[in-house]
Amino acid sequence: MLEQIIIFGTLSGLVFALIALGFTLVYGISGIVNLTHGAFFMLSAYIYGILIRFLPNFISLEFPYLTPVIALILSTLFTGIIGSIFYRLALHPILGDEISILVVSICGCLIFQQLIFLIMGSLQAASFRIPSLIHGIVYIGSVRVLTRTILAAFVSILAFITLTILLEKTKAGNAMKALSQDLEAAMLMGISTERLYIFTTAISACLAGIAGIMFTSTVTESVSVAMWLDCLAYSFAIVIIGGLGSIKGTLLGGLIFGYAQAAANIIIPYAGYLQESFPFIIMILVLIIRPKGLFGKRVEME
Amino acid sequence: MIMPLLEVENLTKHFGGLIAVNNVCLQVEEGEIVGIIGPNGAGKTTLFNLITGYLKPDSGRIIFKGEDITGLPPNKIANKGLVRTFQIVRPFRHLPTIANILVALQSNRGRKRIEWIKTPERKAMEMLEDVGLSEMMMEPAENLSHGDLKRLEIARAMALEPELILLDEPFGGLNPIETEYMVKSIQRMHLDGHTMVIVEHKLRALMKLVERVIVIHYGEIIAEGTPEEIGKNKKVIEVYLGKGEGGLDARS
Amino acid sequence: MMIIETCKKYLRKTYTEFATHVYDIPQRMLALLILIIFLTLPYGGIDLLKTLPWLTTANIMAILAVSWDLLVGRTGQMSLGQALFYGSGAYGTALLFTYLGWPLWASIPLSILFGTGLALIIGVPCLRMKGPYLALLTMAFPLSITGFLYYFRDIFYGETGIPPPRAGRLPSLFPYPGRFSLFDKLIADYFLSFALMFISAIIIYKVATSKTGIVFVSILDDELGAKACGINVTKYKLMSFVISGIFGSLSGSLYASLQKSLANPPFFDLLNSVIPIVATILGGIGTIYGPIVGTYIYYTLDKYIFHYVIPLDKNMRLLIYIVVVVIFIIKWPRGIARAIVEKLEDLQEPREIEEIKKENVRPGE
After folding, report:
1. I want to staple C240 with a disulfide (CB 3.0 to 4.6 A). Which of A84, A277, C75, C326 is the partner?
2. Model ipTM value
3. Cβ atoms within 10 A of the Cβ of C224, count?
4. Does B107 touch chain C (CB under 8 A)?
5. Nearby residues of C178 by Cβ (< 8 Å), 6 or more positions away
6. B73: distance to nearest CA of chain A, Å?
7. CA neighbor of C140 nearest in space, from C79, C213, C201
8. Which spans in chain B are helix H?
9. How many CA atoms lie within 13 A of C303 on its CB side?
10. B51 touching A, CB under 8 A?
11. pTM for this model (two decimals)
12. What is the Cα–Cα distance from B206 to B209, expressed in whole angstroms?
């Protein structure tokens, strides 16, 4: 039983961490709580689902893995672009007004939800299945694990590493780090906050996109127009455990959340319906005990 | 022996690896007017934050009127009669000027201990008259000039009829006329019997007011004495010269 | 005779009061005009069957919006979870009715108590939270309740929600006597909900303009500064939560009495947290009239314009509102109603400083 908790906890924890990564990145660098993160998560999954169906018409069947990979790349890129456009149009003009940013970003989620609903036409059409990437089962020790779960965890690790490299080694990444540490100094050095914020949003939207595709193709195997709420639920829980704005914190937060959920699934029978509330319950518990999470950034006076 | 109004014993505060306040001890007698000076980042505002409860010290004690107030939250400390102003003015922007004062009068101290003649609005108007802001009474605080806001800070602090006032850079950003006015206001408050501790960079204005000066550098007290003594103190001059700011008298 | 003299004196006094305090002030005249319109609406030849129900709903939801505005616009505690109070009020009423047989209208005071208790419980963790964490936490609360509603389906009836007293019964706010016709009931509901909304608005107005209300705004503007003034910020935040909770659950209770299915999980939906926000932003955040006006704008659009004038699909409508809200937030962050009021203030004749000094001091409404 313990091995189950550890293995499932780690694997799912990594995926959850990926879901929250974009959200935490935007907050850490620009101080914006961008709730539209959930919409990007959802949008990318939908685009992926559609591309998966139509691409095989254009690609020869010699390389069966090409379709998902291209679909992934295309939907992630598209989501990144849409994300930065949305940010520039709707969020950038009201920077500094925290209440409005929260309201507008929630509205963003609703806008995308409605758009998808309208384009798909009906509730049935909007909730279709996403075929999983790979099939198969492996045994880790005595625990039976689906290979696609391992794939998702692996992609998540890749994403974390890539992001860290981006922040440490590239000029843009260094500029982003500078902004997060000392806004005034960075501005004095001539860093354009507008372009960097747009870039940050684009990156975080891409991360949300990858997370969306991974989550739907390996965990839920379906999409729905309310997906963005699930994404936000997980993001909140993880970010509160690990602290908003810290990448390390998100990784740890995701893992802790994964273990907690794995343990809860085993300990509480028929937890099916409570599953929905689980991220929120964790959130509330953690916030009661430690209001700023484990590694929260931007700690204020007192 | 008369007990000092404020006693700070071995106060220390770290931020991560940085020591902001290092084993600071000081005393303030009732009726005194003390100045605290030191280069930027020396820990003066941190010291204020520690004394007034906005930060919790890592070690040490703060004793006010014989009572240990270490670790109490800021509002409780204010209600005991120890109030402070802020370096960067923070008025209640959406409220009219007079309402800014009314907020202070809504505290426990404001409601239980202060005599209002007829209504709290009367009392608030008096406070505004004392600092010359009565015409701005109904103006939303956000429309006030910087000089007016500095005076509002003082009025707000005085509304609580404190025994000890900590003023954090009261002359910051004031032109010479406003500075003179502020000097006179502080002198009047001192004559009324209020004990004051003032942190300030404008040394000429400060030295005119205070009886005793404490110099802080890197979180430690490096000198204490009358304004004349401090002006001649070699260590202090080094600290200021070393930072490229010229002699003490050259400042402001 | 003495009585006639006293009456005349009183009438004269009232008239002078009216002339100086209302007639000269354009905003108050406008408010009076709107009030008169609302009171005579059911007799103005409109189609009662179609319009009154949603007007009644608008009255009820206006209470929810005002409760949100007090907490967020006036005390600065960002709440994305007003649906928590709304749903609790509804379930409170429904549970009292179903299990204890209390008539719907009588259970309202008790469900308000329930809402207050809930506010205290959730308020406590919220008090230590700032900014984003507070917003996330408040958003989480109502969304997490649905899981419990399903899990304990024996008590809460799960997805379908608590059923109404009699299937097919036309719901109304109050058990009116049998001889009331359908139209009479609709009109009565409308006036009852309007009265309740009006009273709620007055109460919250009184709170907002009291010294307590001034302290609320100080917390909105600068919490640390308020502490420096000796204010027990925690106590006042909790007070704001509780008042918001009281009126939030009131609106939920009222709506449950109207709804066909008494209380069901969708009461806790994010939508019921978002509508008051949308309404308040349209009307003007941080005012009392803003959320009310905004709610009416929203419902007029939703139930009238997009129903009869330009019929639109439900989802299309939602999309449009949201886009409109976003545009509003970006271009007119202070709301339409407020902009109008401020324009009217410019028309106002300048008054003597003495007169202003006599009045109670209060923050900009």
Report:
1. C75
2. 0.87
3. 15
4. yes
5. none
6. 9
7. C79
8. 44-51, 74-79, 97-105, 108-112, 120-130, 146-158, 176-191, 203-209, 227-232, 234-242
9. 16
10. no
11. 0.83
12. 5
